[in-house]
Amino acid sequence: MMTHAPDPTDVAAAYDRWSQVYDTDENRTRDLDAAMLRRQDFDLRGRDVLEIGCGTGKNTAWLAGRARSVVAVDFSAGMLAQAQRRVAAPHVRFVRHDVREPWPLADASVDLVIGNLVLEHVETLDDVFAQAFRVLRDGGECYFCELHPFRQMMGKQARFAHLETGETVRVAAFLHDVSDYVNAAIRAGLRVVAVHEWRDETPASAAAIPRLFALRCRREPR
Ligand SMILES: C[S@@+](CC[C@H](N)C(=O)[O-])C[C@H]1O[C@@H](n2cnc3c(N)ncnc32)[C@H](O)[C@@H]1O
Description:
The protein has 222 residues and is of the alpha/beta class. The chain is built from 7 helices and 9 strands; from the N terminus they run ααβαβαββαβαββαββ. The protein has a single domain, classed as 3-Layer(aba) Sandwich (Rossmann fold). The mean pLDDT is 94. Bound molecules: S-adenosylmethionine (SAM). The site of S-adenosylmethionine (SAM) has 23 residues, from α1, α2 and α3.
């Protein structure tokens, strides 16, 4: 049987393939991201949340257990299908959408915008932060957690083994420095409230290059 290598620059198609094994592959970045989100002190009771790049719903499930409503957006039909299997609840709505395009939400309609391991695939951060500012209510927060750029400089990148050939598929990604994220947030009018750099939680990782970078920002009341 002929198999064709997926085009790594077609990020949605690459994730369609990865969706089959995304949850079962060993993936320390995915797991550390999940652990760190669960330590954030978000009070989501009665709150409306937008999650961009929800993937297979690893974090959507956690948000759904706490928030009044969740809109979870992704442009990979395969990843969304897995997420819909995982999280079926009337207050959670999945939307297939490319977050590089204007987001399908009204101005000032959510209390939290969250994105995990998605912005490495987005070249222009300004558009994302401008959309976050637009859809956030006064006092609302956004939280983005990404593969640390130092790791990217070491050659790390979202990747998976092709199911049929076993070949490693590296999904197209862009390098954004920590300052690129922070300055994009500031340019959008958001106030940065926390910057985190997280390592694996093993003694051997104490002096290692951080695995994750995360940013929390607030839309201040007008
Ligand atoms: C590494 S996965 C992370 C999934 C999930 N947030 C998690 O933490 O496990 C990245 C996700 O972002 C999605 N994604 C990447 N670029 C996107 C875009 N421009 N618009 C919408 N989704 C995008 C991919 O389809 C994929 O599901």
